[in-house]
Amino acid sequence: MGRLTSERKATIEFCDQPLTGEGGIDFEIIEGFFFAYRDFISDPDAILESSGFGRAHHRVVHFVNREPGLTVADLLETLKITKQSLARVLKQLIDSGYIRQVAGPEDRRQRKLYPTQSGRDLALALAQPQQERIERAFEGMSVEDRKAVTRFLAGMQNARQE
Amino acid sequence: MGRLTSERKATIEFCDQPLTGEGGIDFEIIEGFFFAYRDFISDPDAILESSGFGRAHHRVVHFVNREPGLTVADLLETLKITKQSLARVLKQLIDSGYIRQVAGPEDRRQRKLYPTQSGRDLALALAQPQQERIERAFEGMSVEDRKAVTRFLAGMQNARQE
DNA sequence: AAAATATGTCAGCGTTGTTGACATATTTTT
DNA sequence: AAAAATATGTCAACAACGCTGACATATTTT
């Protein structure tokens, strides 16, 4: 604890000691996660900029490619955003020809989402720099180490609703 | 590749096969990182909501606590945002009594930032649920496994400018 | 026929990032 | 001492992407 000036009257207190892992807090992981994720998404961000798209578009293109035919409701559940938020970016992706909608064959209220070839190409282009970054981070690591990372990422997630 | 209808004329093409790791892309890591980070920041988000603060405030409080006395320029460099963005949240944190500014002892143009006791308490309260989540993810993992995670997070980051 | 469901849309708002321009205090350079 | 550079603050406008609330339409279920 310190004091703003050498005078006694005000006693304006502030902490001048760095907050370290004394309380059993793993700041290396906390900060590492922040910096790593920020840099991780900066790669596709740079690509998206030229198309006039953003991160929200990236996520939609990604998951539609990962599971072609998923419905709007499925996508909302995965992304955990509102339909109004999704509508904005989805409309742009459809208008730009990256994604198509098909009425559900059984339930015609549904809109099943599929990537076009452009949409697939875009998803791959966005994943590529991320893959290179992952490979660089994995460089020199054993198979067990890599498994540990995968397990860690899974363990950091909330329980999947089933 | 599929077709929207059985008709031939239009040939509206779309991909109906899921994009898997065929191109050597590790989607498990890519998606795991996305879901893990999203859930990771949701914990402090819930706490911040009651104070009327957001994620941007969290980051500022965190780094000021980690390195008391850092200057505004230092903070901008760490967060990689513009001073106008920082000003908004920093002002609120100062007005709310979580952070104090002190003119630099050598260079009086500088504003050195310090947490107050409230600011320290807030930083700890925000870190706590994140720590618990990390511990849960680390559960049952060896020391080498944990080191691998730390190394992975470091390797995912851009080279530090020095 | 009525209710529920899946989706779309309009309107407005909040947070947090951006750029550009300019002001002030202080330090460094000439 | 004057001029230039630096550290910070501030005003204004804008963009991306979350949110809520309300309402419309088509389709399916009850």
UniProtKB/TrEMBL annotation, chains A, B:
<dbReference type="InterPro" id="IPR023187">
    <property type="entry name" value="Tscrpt_reg_MarR-type_CS"/>
</dbReference>
<protein>
    <submittedName>
        <fullName>DNA-binding MarR family transcriptional regulator</fullName>
    </submittedName>
</protein>
<dbReference type="InterPro" id="IPR039422">
    <property type="entry name" value="MarR/SlyA-like"/>
</dbReference>
<dbReference type="InterPro" id="IPR036390">
    <property type="entry name" value="WH_DNA-bd_sf"/>
</dbReference>
<keyword id="KW-0804">Transcription</keyword>
<dbReference type="InterPro" id="IPR036388">
    <property type="entry name" value="WH-like_DNA-bd_sf"/>
</dbReference>
<keyword id="KW-0238">DNA-binding</keyword>
<dbReference type="Pfam" id="PF12802">
    <property type="entry name" value="MarR_2"/>
</dbReference>
<dbReference type="InterPro" id="IPR000835">
    <property type="entry name" value="HTH_MarR-typ"/>
</dbReference>
<keyword id="KW-0805">Transcription regulation</keyword>
<dbReference type="GO" id="GO:0003700">
    <property type="term" value="F:DNA-binding transcription factor activity"/>
</dbReference>
<feature type="domain" description="HTH marR-type">
    <location>
        <begin position="1"/>
        <end position="158"/>
    </location>
</feature>
<dbReference type="GO" id="GO:0003677">
    <property type="term" value="F:DNA binding"/>
</dbReference>
<dbReference type="GO" id="GO:0006950">
    <property type="term" value="P:response to stress"/>
</dbReference>
